[in-house]
Amino acid sequence: MAFDPSAFSFSNTDLVVDPYPVYAEIRERDPIHNSRMYGGSWLLFSYEDAAALARDERLTNNRATLPIMALPEEQRGEFDEFVTFLRMWTGFSVGDEHTARRALLDEVFRVLSPTRIAGVVQDVVDHLIDGWDGRDKVDLVADFARPMPAMVLTRLLGAPEDDHEQLDRWSDDLVYLFGASALTVEDVRRGWAGGKALMAYLRELAADMARVPHRSLLGELLARRHDGFGFTEAEACAQCVMMMFAGVEPSRHLIGNAMMALHRFPEQRRLLMGNPRLWPAAVEEFLRFDPPVQYIGRLAAESFTFRGRDFEKGQPVLPFIGSANRDPKQFTDPDVLDIRRRPKHISFGHGVHRCIGTGVVRTQTAVALRTLLTRVPDVEVCADPTPTWNAYVGFHGLESITVSIPRVAPRSVLPRSH
């Protein structure tokens, strides 16, 4: 039976295992799709349209109100403080404010260089794999892909690593608000409670760093200024919450999605392991083939017409990455994983509003997967139990995937550069 495009939503559980055939159907029948989500929104399913509107200046990145747009209007006033908190995120700022914030964040990440981040990732990944000694199976999500990014970011923040599980749970409640669309007032309350808990934790950490300066993500955000601009303590803490959102969830899903892709295309795994120079291209292909973040969020800053459709000011406009990256008009054999291609995917957006977690996600994915496949060369996805996926489509990823680990090699087998 053909899928009814009017039934498309981030919360449609019929789509979570494999949404791509449905994307293909909508691309053919209704590529500029008017959805009932968020009280009426536009979704762009073709690569050409998604790429064009991802960089269109008639759209704004100031989408802090998106999670509450699914609520009845009479419930939204409860969350004014929550919206104010989200508007502190650089990812939701616009214009000169965004330029100043982004420049300062870019300076911080020059200090926290890819080499330094890769070193932290390597140590965390090795620590997790070391713990598998004596086991013949593990849940690659619970025992690897889920804890790793949170452990890495906790270290980069300058927080005690043992706190990563609590920080991760608070972050999860926030992430859900952007991954699902059929949100209830209880969902938003839970997400805002997680945001407040993260902010309270980070402000206490910031107070400690004020007494003893610390070379960390939070420490650098507190200490640095760029062209006279600097973050307040609250703003610095809010950027760290944003980085948990931008760097933790995508990394964990991309690792699991990539492992499933290599399981489906074993010849690509053999090719990759025989030619390590393909790793950078492989990560880009994983991002194209099954991106963890399936859409780019925007709001219409003004009313305008696009390809005969009338977009109203304030409406959500959502270029759909997951569909665009499988568009056969842009990619040859788009449903085939090919680590030798050089895909011009749009998984991180375009231009000044490209995803802030880009570098962290790429580094974590490359180091984690290369280490896994080198230290556990015979790792294989198990048919039983069946892999399970998360319950919403805005973010696509696994909740559980059991893998066999016949042998685990010691750390010394690995090259130390990535």
UniProtKB/TrEMBL annotation:
Kinase found in the keyword field: no
Keywords: Heme, Iron, Metal-binding, Monooxygenase, Oxidoreductase
PROSITE patterns according to UniProt: CYTOCHROME_P450
Keyword Chaperone: no
Gene3D superfamilies from the UniProt entry: Cytochrome P450
Record-linked InterPro entries: Cyt_P450, Cyt_P450_B, Cyt_P450_CS, Cyt_P450_sf
UniProt similarity note: Belongs to the cytochrome P450 family.
Protein name, as recorded: Cytochrome P450
